[in-house]
Amino acid sequence: MKSNKLAMSLIAVALASTCGLSLADTVVKLGFGSPLTGPQAHYGKDNLNGVQLAVDELNAKGVVVGGQKVKFEIVPEDDQADPRTGTQVAQKLVDQKVNVVLGHFNSGVTIPASKLYADAGIPELAVATNPQYLKQGFKSAFRLVGNDAFLGKVLGEYAVKSLKAKSIVIVDDRTAYGQGLADEFEKAVKANGGKVARREFTTDKSTDFTSILTSIKANKPEVLFYGGADAQAAPMAKQMQALGITAKIMGGDMLNTDKFIELAGGKPAEGHFSAVSGAPIAKQPGGPAFEKKYKDKFKQDVVLFAPQFYDSVYLVAEAMKKANSVEPAKFLPALKAINYKGVSGTFSFDAAGEPKNAPVTIYGVKNGKWDVVVVK
């Protein structure tokens, strides 16, 4: 009899365990891709921090989708800001059957990787700014920030009309991001009646620009547009000062970091400009509160797009709740129709996946920090 009671107890425990499993959280895998090593790691880690902060909050609150509690898990991958590595990362995320991909950061990585996600039917939310990303026509692709066409338009107009630059030279790093933004800047300069005196190119690994700058000096540039990242723009600023070139550097969002000022070494960073998709964090709907949470958790300042990556997690969660499903094919339509007020702004997308609200902020370095110049 004792034996029967023991057996019944064991069965009861097993049934309880089984019930526990059936009631366990549904795991939602958030694929993540950005550079986590190398000279662009500070961007990628900032992006990952934004995702982590949102995931921790949602898991603490408890999210229910279709009557089932879900648990969000990040599947982070280091794409090294390299297109070849990026496609390998994309295939790895597809093979792991992630529910969505948050990333990538670089346009050169995002564009080829997006085809793999589209073929697998996995939604992707990226901050890649090259227009070609969404011109491919993939229905699963979304952009979280404004594209280069608008960013370049704002920068080119500012260089000609506000800075009154007569001699403008362009240097780009030949990446999809750097070259794409430089192309749009050149179009905008010409559309506003300006002229590009010279155009040169380098690579995203270069740090010695002496030869290029020496040849450019003869053009007496007032503006030098650089399409590329802070790790190259900073030494360029130092070398310009050493050569007596007084041109203002202008660039995109990848210049807008404390690292640019740090690497430039103080004074050489002064007076240069960058443009960033989105409002200044202090002017974002939930920017100040987000900034405080971010600093409290990670003991560092926001680098660039952490707020948008944070919002991307909430966007996905909201779409899943509206669709009553965590399956990509089922929540994708809800994502397309979303209208969500996040910390960085209100998100809704047009038919191509472009954000409908995408302001641009121009910043300038003044007294060792990036200050807002104008919001367009």
Search tags:
single chain, six-stranded mixed β-sheet, alpha/beta, seven-stranded mixed β-sheet, disordered N terminus, 2 domains, 45% helix, Rossmann fold, 15 strands, 376 residues, 20% strand
How would you portray this structure in words?
This protein folds into 2 domains: 188 residues, Rossmann fold, CATH 3.40.50; 144 residues, Response regulator (Rossmann fold). By secondary structure, the protein is α/β, with parallel strands linked by helices.
Class inferred from helices and paired strands: alpha/beta
Radius of gyration: 23 Å
Within the largest sheet, what's the order of strands? 8-7-9-10-11-14-15
Q: Describe the global form.
A: elongated
Return residue spans where pLDDT drops below 50 for at least 5 consecutive residues.
1-22
CATH H-level superfamily title of the largest domain: Response regulator
**Termini separation:** 81 Å
Helix content: 40-55%
Q: Output the CATH class name of the largest domain.
A: Alpha Beta
Instruction: Let me know the average pLDDT.
Output: 93
Number of domain units = 2
The count of strands amounts to: 15
Largest sheet: 7 strands, mixed
Helix count? 13
Short overview:
This is Branched-chain amino acid ABC transporter substrate-binding protein. By secondary structure, the protein is an alpha/beta fold. The protein has helices at residues 2-22, 41-61, 83-95, 107-120, 132-135, 148-162, 176-191, 210-216, 230-243, 258-264, 287-298, 306-323, 328-336; strands at residues 26-34, 63-65, 68-78, 100-103, 124-126, 141-143, 168-172, 196-201, 223-227, 248-251, 273-277, 340-341, 346-347, 360-366, 369-375.
